[in-house]
């Protein structure tokens, strides 16, 4: 890239932008000073970045024809076969299309990234390939991963395998449809407000968002760094735990990863049952304005099933939970847009910046008119509240997260896990293309009252199917203390072993 020296007009424009009140003489003096800075930039431009090695051959990826793309779930098919043998040998995997797979096109559900091809593999991809998985391709996701439904991608809606007129959940929408239909064994999605767990509830599979930072986010297109989680979507608890054993742990490139536990074995206790464990059924997780009676009843019944398995189950009031979504909201709104304005990587942190992705995103405003209405609503809200209050409510919400987390931890001091519905409703109908802004945005953001607080607090949370109602799955969510994934898996595995959720 050619580094152009700033001229007098560039300096004058910067002076106006920052209200520096420079006269012509000042402008020329500063222009000359910047010549030395430009030399440093030229040197940096000439040097080669230290990027992770890409191993394992792959094809560039082909978008399948409609007849070969059930539920419109795939973005591109590209087979990458990992090492022979290994802990995950032969496991068929899909990757959400915000996860870098070197040499394979990626668009993150958006018009602005069409044609971009990453030059690295995300850490989670490298670790799975080294463990023997077969990556079968990139799965569709929602536009910039903003929607919790499955109708906002630039390539059209993803359909629920249980009823193709309904949402598959988002933003890891294609991953959800592929796992629920059995077309892959496991998918890696991402979760900033519920985007692994919402599809799990709508489409009927296991979705785990581990403790914030446990799984490295390196090489995954960020949304908001304090909310970002890479998560595992699988047909059963054991496969989920097996994958977490492989992908968890520090990689030295992700600043989200601090003070991780040394013991990261999650499969040892899966067969020990839940007898004697203490489960808190959170009263405030039920009875939202949009809660469906069938969902609340099915999850309450699941709690009674745990009691029948020997767990101590008790309803517990946790009033602060009702404020959790509101606390998450300014972080998600303002943080997402500030991240986007920084070409999705921002600054002031050490780790791996995917500069090729930053270049591909640098002109996103040129196509902003094509953004779906949910993305437009986030931009408008962030601009208004961020500029009017100068980020103070983002900051206050981050301060309130500590109070919110303390409320959960006060209950978890006496209980092993929290239990509540993953989402208040079953998979709704996909909106009509001409449904109008209110319906389009409402359908995208209506479901994450229970899921979003655990992105803000970072506590591990897993959605598990617990019943079938009206021909559609119902999901319950289990939440544990930081780094208690093995215990969350143990509770989920006990339910899964004892009951067939499709008959409950």
What's the short story on this structure?
With 504 residues, the protein is an alpha/beta fold.
Tell me about this structure.
This protein is an alpha/beta fold and 504 residues long. The protein contains 14 helices and 13 strands. The protein folds into two domains: 39 residues; 358 residues, Amidase signature (AS) enzymes. The strands form two sheets. It has an eleven-stranded mixed beta sheet with strand order 1-3-2-6-8-7-12-13-11-9-10, sandwiched between helices. A two-stranded antiparallel sheet has the order 4-5. Helix 1 packs across helix 2, helix 8 packs across helix 10 and helix 8 packs across helix 11. The model has no long low-confidence stretch (mean pLDDT 97).
């Amino acid at each position: 890239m050619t580094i152009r020296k700033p001229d007098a007009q560039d300096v004058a424009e910067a002076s106006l932008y920052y209200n520096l009140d420079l006269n012509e003489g000042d402008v020329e003096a500063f222009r000359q000073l910047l010549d030395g800075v430009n030399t440093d930039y030229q040197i940096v431009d000439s040097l080669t970045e230290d990027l992770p090695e890409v191993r394992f051959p792959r094809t560039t990826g082909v978008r399948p024809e409609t007849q070969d793309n059930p539920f419109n779930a795939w973005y591109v098919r590209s087979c990458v076969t990992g090492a022979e043998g290994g802990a995950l040998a032969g496991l068929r995997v899909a990757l959400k299309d915000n996860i870098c797979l070197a040499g394979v096109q990626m668009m993150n559900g958006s018009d602005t990234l069409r044609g971009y091809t990453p030059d690295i593999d995300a850490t989670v991809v490298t670790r799975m390939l080294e463990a023997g998985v077969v990556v079968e391709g990139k799965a569709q996701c929602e536009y910039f991963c903003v929607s919790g439904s499955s109708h906002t991608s630039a390539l059209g809606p993803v359909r629920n395998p249980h009823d193709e007129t309904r949402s598959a959940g988002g933003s890891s929408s294609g991953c959800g449809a592929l796992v629920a239909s059995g077309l892959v064994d496991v998918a890696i999605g991402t979760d900033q407000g519920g985007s692994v767990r919402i599809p799990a509830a709508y489409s009927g599979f296991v979705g785990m968002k581990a403790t914030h930072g446990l799984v490295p986010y390196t090489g995954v297109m960020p949304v908001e760094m304090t909310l970002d989680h890479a998560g595992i979507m699988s047909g059963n608890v054991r496969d989920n735990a097996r994958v977490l054993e492989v992908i968890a742990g520090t990689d030295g490139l992700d600043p989200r990863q601090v003070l991780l536990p040394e013991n990261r074995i999650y499969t040892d206790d899966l067969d020990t049952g839940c007898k004697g464990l203490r489960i808190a059924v959170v009263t405030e997780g039920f009875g939202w304005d949009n809660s469906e009676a069938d969902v609340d009843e099915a999850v309450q019944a699941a709690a009674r099933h745990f009691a029948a398995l020997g767990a101590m189950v008790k309803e517990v009031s946790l009033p602060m939970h009702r404020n959790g979504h509101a606390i998450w909201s300014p972080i998600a709104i303002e943080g997402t847009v500030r991240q986007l304005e920084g070409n999705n990587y921002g600054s002031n942190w050490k780790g791996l910046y995917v500069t090729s992705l930053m270049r591909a995103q640098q002109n996103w405003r040129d196509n902003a008119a094509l953004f779906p209405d949910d993305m437009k609503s986030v931009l408008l809200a962030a601009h208004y509240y961020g500029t009017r209050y100068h980020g103070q409510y983002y900051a206050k919400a981050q301060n309130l997260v500590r109070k919110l987390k303390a409320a959960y931890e006060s209950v978890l001091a006496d209980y092993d896990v929290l239990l509540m519905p993953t989402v208040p409703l079953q998979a709704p109908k996909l909106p009509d293309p001409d449904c109008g802004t209110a319906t389009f945005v409402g359908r995208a953001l209506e479901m994450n009252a229970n899921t979003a607080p655990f992105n803000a607090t970072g506590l591990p949370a897993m959605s598990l199917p617990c019943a079938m109602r009206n021909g559609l799955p119902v999901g319950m969510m289990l939440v544990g203390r930081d780094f208690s994934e093995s215990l969350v898996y143990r509770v989920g595995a006990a339910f899964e072993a004892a009951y067939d959720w499709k008959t409950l």
